[in-house]
Amino acid sequence: MEDLWTVAVAVFQLWMFVVVFLITLPAMFGLSLGVTSVYIQILVKLLEWATIRIQRGRQEQPSVPAPLPNGIIERAEGSMEEEMEQLRRSRSLEGGEFALSDALYFCKKGLESIVDDQVTQRFSSEDLASWNLLTRTNQNFRYISLRLTIFWGIGVFVRYCVLFPLRSVIALAIIGLSWLVIGTTLVGILPENRYGASTVHTFGDCLGEAQTEHVHLSSCRARPVDLSTCVSFCRENRPQKGGICVANHTTPIDVVILANDGCYAMVGQIHGGLMGVIQRSMVRSCPHVWFERSEMKDRHAVTTRLRAHVAAKTKLPILIFPEGTCINNTSVMMFKKGSFEIGGTIHPVAIKYDPRFGDAFWNSSKYNMVSYLLRTMTSWAVVVNVWYLPPMTIQDGEDAVQFANRVKSAIACRGGLLDLAWDGSLKRGKVKDAYKEEQQKMYSRVIVRQNGISATNTRRDN
Amino acid sequence: MGSRASRLLREEEIEEIKKETGFSHSQITRLYSRFTSLDKGENGTLSREDFQRIPELAINPLGDRIINAFFPEGEDQVNFRGFMRTLAHFRPIEDNEKNKNPSATEPLNSRTNKLLFAFRLYDLDRDDKISRDELLQVLRMMVGVNISDEQLGSIADRTIQEADTNGDSCISFNEFIKASFVVNIHICTVVLVLVNI
User: Fold this and answer.
1) Staple partner for B27: which of A110, A277, A444, B23, CB 3.0–4.6 Å?
2) Residue B118 neighbours by CB under 8 Å, 6+ apart
3) Would you list the DSSP string of A248-310?
4) Cβ contact (<8 Å) for A436 and B33?
C-alpha cells in the first residue's frame, strides 16, 4: 500500500513538472513549445477518419438520418407580392384585391416557421455535420462500426482521465484563477493605500499600467492553456487605445481569448457565482464597467462612463459585445445601437470557434458557469480563429442603427457567419409588435395597390 | 445528453404516423427532433406558448389562427401525433399516391383537405359557413390598422358577392372550393428537403 502511495506521489510530481515547466510557464510568457498544435493535428486526422467511416456507414445503413446544415425545408425566395401572385395564378386582378386564398400564403409561411425557423436554433448548440466522437453531440448517430466505438471509448478515457485532471489542476484551483485574483488585488491595493481611491485609475494608467497589463496577459494566457486552446490571431489592425472593440459573442471565454493578445477594459452584465468573483477581482486593477442589464438608470450611467473613457485617448480600448447575449456561433444577430452612439473608432473583431473539437457556446439557461467549464474541459480542445478587421467610423448621413448593421455585416462576412437581423434578446423575451404591424402593412399594400382606394386612408384614431 | 434521448420515438409509433400522414421515416424522426426542441417544458406536448416562442410565427398576422389549428377542440396541449397530423396537410401532393391505394380514405394533404384547412381559418365557430363577420375578422387580422372599416367592409361584401351562389350571404365550403379553383394549390406546401429513401 505504501509503495503504491509513493509511486502515485512520484507520478504526480512528474506530471506537475511537465505541466508547469513545459506548458504553463512558457505560455504565460507568450512562448509555445508546440505541444498543443501537435495534439490538434492528431485530433484533426482522427476526426477526418471518423467522418469518412460514418459516411460509409450511412450508405450501408440508409435508415440513419443525415444532418442538414442549411435547415430542413426549401423556402421560396420571393417577396410577399410575388408569392401571392403565384398563389392566385391566372386570376388577373387589377391591382391587388383580396382573394380568399390569401390566407393560405400566411398559413404556409406560418407552417414553414413552425417546422424550421431561423431564430430559435441560434440559442442552442449547433448541430454538427458529422459526429466528433463526443457523447454529448451524439443526437442521431447510431452504432456504425466497432472501430468507431473503440475510438469513442478511448476518447472518453483520454478526455476524462487524462486531459480533465490535467486541465483542472492547472486551471482554476491552482494557477490561473488565484494568480488572477492575487495579482489584481496586489495591483489594486497598493496605490489605494498610498494615494487614496480617487487616484487609483490615474496611478494605474501611469505607473501600474505595465504591471497591470503584464498581470492580465499572463493570467489570461494561463487560462487558454488549460483548455488546450489553439488560437490563431490575424495580427494586423489590432485595436488601439481610445477605441471601442466590438465582437460577436459566443461564450465568456471570448474575453479570455481576446485578452490573450491585448489588454481591454470590459463592459458587461453582472453575474453571480464564480463569474461574479472573477468580475469583482478584475475591477480592482482595471476600470471595467459591470452593470445590470435590466436597470435603466444603470444603462445611462454606463453610457456616460463609456463616453468619458473614449474621450480620454490614453485609456485601454473598451471591449463590448453588442449582441448582448451569447449566440451559438453560427450567426451574428442584431447589434444594439448603444455602443455605436458613443462616437470614436470602432475596431470590429470576428471570432469563430471550430465546432469539431468541442462546443464553445454557453447556453446559460441550461448550464451554469461551473458545468459549462466542466464540459469545456472535457471536450477535445478549443480551436478558435480571431480576425481583427480594419477600424470603422460612422459616416455622414448614417445613423447609429445603420452603422451597427454595417459593422455586423463586416464581422459576419469575415467570420463566415450568417448575418441575421433578429434580436438576440429574443432568447429571453417576446418579439416586438412592430414587426407584425410591418407584415400587416405590406399585405395592405398588396390588396389596395392600384384600386383607387388610398392605402393611407387609415383609421383616424391614431 | 438530456431530454432528447430520454424519450425516443418507438418504431411502432413511427409506422403508425407514416401510415396516417404519409411522411417518410426520416422525415418523421427529423420532425420529432423539431417537436422536442420546441417542447421547453419537456412533457411530450406543446402548448400555445411554445408556439408563440417562434419569432417568425409571432409576427405572422394569422399566427394565432394557425396555432389554433393545431389544437383539437377545447384542448390546450398537442402531442406529437396531433402535431404531425396538422403538418401533414402541407405535405406536397405526389402523383403516384393516387395510384397506390384507390380505396383508401383521402390523404391528409389532398387538395380538398388543404382547402378545408384554409376554410377553417376563416370559419371560427365551425358552423361550415363563413359569415360576413368572420370574414371581416380575418381581414382585420391580416391588414392591421392600415385600412379603414368602410373599405374593409366593401372588400368583404364584394368577396361574398362573388363567391356566394345560393344567396345566403355566407360562403359554404363548396362555394369556397369553387371560388378557389384557380388557386395554385401546389404552392401551398412546405417542401421538406430530405434525402428520399
Assistant:
1) B23
2) A100, A101, A103, A104, A107, B176, B180, B188
3) --S-THHHHHHHTTS--EEEEE---HHHHHHHHHHHTTS--EEE-TT-HHHHHHHHHHHHHHH
4) no
CATH topology assigned to domain B108-196 = Recoverin; domain 1 (1.10.238)
How many Cβ pairs closer than 8 A exist between chain A and B? 196
Whether residue A369 contacts residue A273, with contact meaning beta carbons closer than 8 Å, is answered with yes
CB A244 within 8 A of CB A267: no
Tell whether A97 is within 8 A of chain B (Cβ): yes
- The ipTM estimated for the assembled molecules is 0.86
Q: How many CB atoms lie within 10 A of CB B184?
A: 16
Name the amino acid, one letter, at A238.
Answer: R
Q: pTM of this prediction?
A: 0.75
Segments making up each domain of chain B, as ranges: 11-89, 108-196
Q: Which three cell numbers stand for residue A360?
A: 464553445
Model confidence pLDDT, tens digit, residues A110-143: 888 888 888 888 888 777 766 777 766 665 556 6
- Cell 485532471 locates to A165
What are B134-165's pLDDT values in tens digits?
999 998 999 888 888 998 898 888 888 888 88
Which A residues 151-190 touch B at CB under 8 Å? none
Contacts of A385 (CB under 8 A, 6+ apart): A231, A232, A234, A351, A352, A354, A415
The CATH-assigned architecture of domain B11-89 is: Orthogonal Bundle (1.10)
